[in-house]
């Protein structure tokens, strides 16, 4: 059930809310990531040969957080929280899990816990994407690059855990 049409200022404020929420999670993760936090621990880890260069992570995650924010906004704009509650709740859960991974991996340097957590995160992203597709195909498609990247990040986490 779609909600009543929102005015343009309300739509813009909603978009800003979802983007800022996603960027806030990005910011908390960046605070413990190499480049902002001390990189010595991460640089000392054994990594697979296919580990991407450090400069790639910032632009990729910036694009992914932007797409996540737009996807959530599309669901909210079309259905509101009341009529898209499961999709919004799972989105918020996966967003929290996303932020938790950076803390586990970089801040606490708990590779095993980070591995378990990213597998749960990936499951939550799949559920979110499925629920988004049910409501708005564009929102669902905006989540697909995120699934691909976190799938890659999961493989990378497994490799780093095994190598260390």
Polypeptide structure, described:
- The chain contains 6 helices and no strands.
- Helix 3 packs antiparallel against helix 4.
- Helices cover 81% and strands 0% of the residues.
Proportion in β-strands: under 5%
Q: Based on helices, strands and strand pairing, what is the structural class?
A: mainly alpha
Basic shape: elongated
Number of helical segments with 4 or more residues: 6
How large, in whole angstroms, is the Cα Rg? 17 Å
Query: Could you give a short account of the major beta sheet?
Result: none
Roughly how many Å apart are the termini?
A: 50 Å
Return the string of H and E elements: HHHHHH
- Uncertain stretches: none
Total number of β-strand segments? Answer: 0
Mean pLDDT: 95
Helix content: over 70%
Describe the protein's topology.
Blueprint: H1 8-30, H2 40-44, H3 54-83, H4 85-107, H5 111-135, H6 137-163
Keyphrases for this structure?
164 residues; mainly alpha; elongated
Summarize the structure.
Helices cover 81% and strands 0% of the residues.
